[in-house]
Amino acid sequence: MLCAVPPHINDSRSVEEMSIVMGDSAEMRCETGGIPQPTVRWIRDARTITFVDHPNLRVERAGHMLRVHNMQLSDVGAYTCVASNRAGNASKQFILSILGRDATHPRISDSDTRLRIIFEFVRTEYAVVWAISDQCQLKLCY
Q: Torsions phi, psi of 35, nearest 5?
């Protein structure tokens, strides 16, 4: 009789959130175990990743690492590694967000008024919020 142990992924109980500077690289690691050794596949936003559609994504280390080269807004989202063998499946989720490369902090001189800029990234959409105070905001959505 052959023994089978379901897959497990290190730190799979927590979602790993990563904020990457635009243009930099990101590495998502999926360290697995199980008998037989699980195979690993990657999913993005609930769909299997097709690397033809995402040329800046690379699977390395026999599927145990997904690397994003030259991080762009289009790379923002939820990624999941799924480890499978005949005894079952295990998964771990990663959330990638992006930071601007040259963050600047605008200043209004000779005034107590403060200008606050908030960037909210959700997938490939973004919003810019200009706020003079918490009560007064102008929101531009793209």
A: -130, 120
